[in-house]
Amino acid sequence: MEREEALTTRDRLAPSARKGTAGATAPGGVLLEVTDVTAGYRREPVVRGISLQVEHGEAALVIGPNGAGKSTFVKAVTGELPLLGGSVHLRGVDVSRWPEERRTSAGIGYVPQVRDVFPGLTVQENLEMGGYRLARNELRDRIGGVVETFPTLKALLRRQAGQLSGGQRKLVGVARALVPQPELVILDEPTANLSPRIAGDVLDEAVSALCTQGRGVLLIEQRVAVALERASSVLVLVDGRPRHSGPAADLRGKVDLGALFFGRAAAEPAAGGATRP
Ligand SMILES: Nc1ncnc2c1ncn2[C@@H]1O[C@H](COP(=O)(O)OP(=O)(O)OP(=O)(O)O)[C@@H](O)[C@H]1O
Ligand SMILES: [Mg+2]
After folding, report:
1. Contact 118, 126 (CB under 8 A)
2. pLDDT at 273
3. Is residue 95 predicted with pLDDT exceeding 90?
4. CA-closest residue to ligand 1 atom 24
């Protein structure tokens, strides 16, 4: 916990990281468009009929109970899982059949819920893996940039990633995903296992800074109230299907999760917008 606390004060995005680096784009416009996606494992659907948009400079939030299919859904967006139906467009280009590596090159960065670092490699090596396609000089500059963004990493560069605290590991995972300067950053529960204070910092500082840079964020998060403050839109997944979709502002301050996730009557006013077509 103590080490995690140390992250809170220092690992705020440095002002230089906010001013829009190469790879970031002007706010506004649709970055990611997911339409009627069905995905699952071994051709067996787990999620069905999922649609959402992520705009430049905005965070789209996906919430839902454990096992609802949130991670499965984002794996279909990254290309880790093939689509069983529907489409994924990035900046208007249909990437539905593109393999994961090509989607990564096109600007999709992904911090998975688990296995977010290579535990046997040092932090430095993990960051290098994030930019393995880059020329040596560029890679050095990019790593310098993310270390400036997350200063705690500096003292950790030679440490083995598998020996870090949960918060430190998560930071390495996020930093590694940022090395290629992705336009869309997908964060699958970035605050899991973090203290509430650090979790708030990750969401308040990292997510909002990415948005300020004109990037788009697709965020899966269990800390619903805090995440709703950061997000522009929200999609609620229950049993692999969309239960609610709309502006995040509509749910701020009035989320009864039991109602929203499990359909108790009290949810109906909040969830009344139904799903986006
Ligand atoms: N590799 C896999 N093979 C087969 N089924 C899987 C696999 N991974 C997940 N599932 C199943 O898919 C369903 C959705 O899981 P998923 O991990 O997408 O949920 P989630 O909403 O991300 O849950 P959590 O909040 O616990 O992370 C679950 O029933 C799960 O058992
Ligand atoms: Mg998950």
Report:
1. yes
2. 37
3. yes
4. 66
Which of the residue ranges 20-24, 34-38, 49-53, 147-151 would you say has the lowest mean pLDDT? 20-24
Show the tokens assigned to 235.
Answer: 């999609």
Using alpha carbons, list the distances in angstroms from residue 5 to 2, 188, 275: 5, 22, 39
DSSP class of residue 247 equals E
Q: pTM of this prediction?
A: 0.84
For residue 76, give the nearest of 54, 53, 46, 118 by alpha carbon.
46
77 touches 32 (CB < 8 A):
yes
Task: Tell me, using a 6 A CB cutoff, whether residue 113 lines ligand 1.
Answer: yes
* Binding site membership of 46 for ligand 1 (Cβ less than 6 Å): yes
- 231 C-alpha to center of ligand 2: Å? 18
Q: Would you tell me which CATH number, out of the four given (3.30.460.80, 3.40.50.300, 3.50.50.60, 3.40.718.10), belongs to the domain 2-271?
A: 3.40.50.300
Q: Please give the distance, rounded to the nearest whole angstrom, from the Cα atom of residue 208 to the centre of ligand 1.
A: 28
What would the pLDDT profile of 255-265 be if each residue is shown by its tens digit?
A: 677 777 776 54
Q: In this predicted model, which residue has the larger pLDDT, 132 or 162?
A: 162
